[in-house]
Amino acid sequence: MELLSILLMMLNDVAAFEAKLDLFAQQLQEGNFTHFPVRLSQVTEPASFSPSIYCAYLRAQKDYFSSPFMDIKYLKSVLAFTGNPFACDIQATSVACGNLLCNTYPALIHCAVKILTCFGSTYLCESAFSAMGIIKSKKRSLLTDRHLTDCLRAATSEQQPDLKLLVKRMQTQISH
After folding, report:
1. Boundaries of every domain in the chain
2. What is the 3-state secondary structure (H, E, C) of 66-91?
3. Among 28, 93, 131, 147, which residue carries the largest CB count within 10 Å?
4. Which UniProt keywords apply (predicted)?
5. The whole model's pTM is what?
């Protein structure tokens, strides 16, 4: 679920950035230079300033920035429901409670499983690749495939060893 919350936070960050670009364009259109102090110092006569070029540029940047996230934005309500079903408006996401969910909305369940599988595997691949970059440094580049597999398994595993129990079970070597 942590990965899903990270994904929702990222989508919220994208939406916040888009809202900021809209705010900037609106303020420039109104002649408000609160967020553009350098531009304010360059404008000698506010009446001669034409904000249309800047507003068009900001809107183009918003469209360019938003295009990679269009598919995911349509699934935001599904992601929110999957992450925390009690915090979502059920009417807004068109989802019923209880056993009706599986029977009435099998496509939604199927979609949620696909989304979770997709981002989970992407996250695992990226974390494994990052761990491999750290493990296979210049000094340790001669690792065997088996040893590298073991190191990657230890690096990407979410299980935490019980060190106190391991130390307690360890047999100490008695001096000769």
Report:
1. 1-74, 88-135
2. HHHHHHHHHCHHHHHHHHCHHHCCHH
3. 28
4. Signal
5. 0.46
